[in-house]
Amino acid sequence: MERIEQIYIDGAFVTPHGDEWFNLFNPATEEVIGQVRLADAEDARRAIAAAKRALPAFSRTTRAERLAMLERMRAAVAAREDELLEAVIKEYGAPSSRSRWMARHAHQVIGEVAEVLARYDFERQAGTARVVMQPLGVAGLITPWNNDAGFICGKLATALAAGCTAVLKPSEMSAIQTRIITQALHEAGLPPGVFNIVTGRGDVVGAEISASPDVAKISFTGSTVVGKTILRTGAETLKRVTLELGGKSPMVVLDDADFTTAVPLAVQAGFMNSGQACIAGTRILVPASRQAEFESLLAREVRATKSGDPRDADTAIGPMVSAKQWERVQRYIRLGINEGARLLVGGEGRPEGMKRGWCVKPTVFTDVRNDMTIAREEIFGPVLSLITYRDEDEAVAIANDTLYGLHGYVVSGDPHRGARVAARLEAGRVLVNTLAHEPKAPFGGFKQSGLGRENGPYGLEAYLEPKAVVVAA
To answer: What's the pTM value of the predicted model, to 2 decimals?
Structure first.
C-alpha cells in the first residue's frame, strides 16, 4: 500500500503541517490501495508565500526562458507516461479506451500551451498607447479528479506561460497521479516557488487559496456549487476568476440524420470518461416521428457497451470514482423511475455478474420530459435521457432550456444545416457530426457552466492584465 507523506513547496518535497490521512481506493475492487497525508491551511499559506517570493523574478523571464521551461516540463511528464497510465487505471478506473489518452494528454497539453506562447503578442499598439499584457500575479489552480494530470499540467503550463507563479490544489482522491506528476515537474528544474502543489480538502486548502489577498487569480474546474462559493470568496479581493463548471449537454439528432451514425456517436458522447465528464451529451433529443426507430438502435448499442473491469480491453465504461459517486448515480436512476420516465436499458445496481467495484449499468431513460430531475441535474455517470421534439425550433428550445451551457452536439445529414442549428445553441462549444477536440479553440461555458475560457490565446489571456502606456513625444 502506497503512503504519500509529502507535498511540494518552494522547490522541495516537504512534510505537511496537516496531519489528516485520507484513504485512496481502487474503484474497480473497492480496496484501499494507499493513503495520502493532507495539507492544511497553514501549508496553503506557506505555498502562497513561496509563490509570492518567486513572482518578481519569474514575471520578468523572457519568452525564450519560459518556452525552455515548458519543454523541460513536457519531456519530464512524457517520460512518466506509462507510470501515469497505470495510476490512471488503478486509482481512477479509466478503461483502456480512455486511460492511454489521459496519460498522453498530460504532456501533450504542455506542448499545446508552448505553441500558443511562441506566437502570442504580449505588446501591441492602440492609438498612441503601447499596450503591454503583463502577468496577473500568483495563480491559485484548483483541479478535479476526473482528469487529474491533464488539468494540473494544462492549468500550470498556462499560468507559467503568462509569467504567473502558481499554487495548485489537486483533488485528494487522485494523490497517486498527483505524486507522479509532481515528481516529473520537479525533475524539470524550475526555480523554487514558481509552482507549489498542496494536496488537501477543498473546504480547507481550497478555501485558503480562494480567500488569500496574495492570490490574484483563481482557475477552478469542478462543480457549479463549489464554483459559486469560490466566486463569492474571491470577490472580497476582486480576484480574476476562471470557472469551468457543470454541464447537461444536449445531443441534438436532427430528422435528416443517419441513425446508424448518430446512435454510436450519441452513446460515445454520453458515456465518455465513464460518464464522469462535464461535457457528456446526456440529453439526447430526437424527432418524435422517429422515436421508435432511434430507441431500437440505441438499446442495441447500449446493451453492447460493457461496463466493468477497466483492464479488460472490451470495457468501455469503468467504475465510478468512489462509493459516494456510485450511490449518487443510483439515486438518480431511482429518481428517473419515480418521476415516470421509461427505463429503456440498464437500471439500478452493478452490471450482471459483478459483486464488487463501483460500476454502473449503462442506463437510458426514454419518454423523458425536460423538466424531470434526470434532465435538469448533472448526474456525472453513464445515465442518458431520451427526449423527443416536434420540429427544429422545439429542439433548439429544449436544448437551451437548462441552467447550463458548456457543450452541445448536433448530428445532421447536412453539415451546413447542422452548423446553423449549432449557432442557435447556448453553449461554449458545439460539435457537429464529430466528437473531435480542438485544443486551439476556447473552452468554457455559458450560464451556470462557468466564467471565462481556457485553451489557446483565450486561456493565456485569462492570466494576463492589459496595461496601457502613453508616452509624450
So the answer is: 0.97
